[in-house]
Amino acid sequence: MKVDFAPLKTPVHRRLQTAAVLQWVFSFLGLAPTCIVLFFYLLFTRFWLISVLYAVWWFFDYDTPSRGGRRVPFLCGLKIWDYMRDYFPVKLVKTADLDPRHNYVIGFHPHGVLVAGAFTNFCTYSTGFKQLFPGLTTNLLMLPLWFRAPFFRDYIMCAGLIPSDKESASYQLRKRGGGNAVVIAVGGAPEALDAHPGSYDVLLAHKKGFIKMAMEHGAHLVPVFSFGENEVYDQVGNSRGTWLRSTQERLQSIMGISLPLFHARGIFQYSFGLMPYRKPINTVVGRPIRVERKEKPTAEELDALHQLYMDELSNLFDEHKGNYGIDKDTHLNFV
User: Fold this and answer.
1) Is 180 helix (H, G, I), strand (E, B) or coil?
2) Helices marked H in 186-242 — which ranges?
3) 74: Cβ–Cβ under 8 A, 6 or more apart, which residues?
4) Strands (E), 69-179
5) pTM, whole model, 2 decimals?
6) How far is C-alpha 290 from the geometric centre of its chain's CA atoms?
7) What is the mean pLDDT of the chain?
8) What is the per-residue pLDDT across 60-85, written as a single tens digit (0 to 9) for each?
9) DSSP E strands: which ranges in 80-150?
10) At 42, is the secondary structure helix, strand, or coil?
11) Is residue 119 within a helix (H) or strand (E), and if so which, with residue range?
12) Are strands 201-202 and 333-334 parallel, antiparallel or unpaired?
């Protein structure tokens, strides 16, 4: 295989962009196990007290992730996120105002491999969410598994991440006065297995939990489609029904996380590696869908709102796909 190396005279700002994305990729793929190993390793060294004190702190702080987390605005606004934004680049597109007097459930589609668009737009200040939607605070939901990793849980809470369970999301949506938005990658880990370039499969046809939660709290629904999310990584072919896909789905059901076999480019060469491609991600925020509060919605009401949400997401995709080079005959496929 011929290796395509990066030029030696690459501009400094592009090196900084690569470094910013490298630390983000490592954070998602390697930092959690590193933190777990470090926690136990310290117990057998002269620094054992660090792990013991942290364990005590963890005991008293255990419920913090499900109670809004602990966002650190200073860290969300660091220059490093601007470099990450410019690497792809990532752009946030507004189509309508979101009244800060209400709370919102924002559905993010598609999940992609590492939800690069969701993290950049809703966990950092680099794409201007605060300016485009003043008065709103977003919390991106992440698998609860990651909040059980010592040290790592504190790191991800700094960016406003909270566990993707009903308790954590409901805590935010119950807050009076509005201005809170929980961001859910609705397809979740299973949808990452469909994150192939050119794929517009959206795992939504039977996903109604977030719809029901919005109705129970009277939170308005906002569909979001991230054009280019599936383009930043290649993935080994795993069509439904193949032995690889069956194995991945079985492991996902056991472990709670999916294991897509993805690849793209490296740090100093463009032929292979786990760094994403430099391809644009355009995250389009759709019009809000008004939701009336109903603590016990009927199945018919739930189905009707779910269908309305799918229709709005389809319309959002069709209205904007031409701006991003997608053929007019291409439509979303709900699975």
Assistant:
1) strand
2) 188-192, 209-217
3) none
4) 90-94, 104-109, 137-142, 162-163
5) 0.95
6) 24
7) 95
8) 999 999 999 999 999 999 999 999 99
9) 90-94, 104-109, 137-142
10) helix
11) helix 116-122
12) parallel
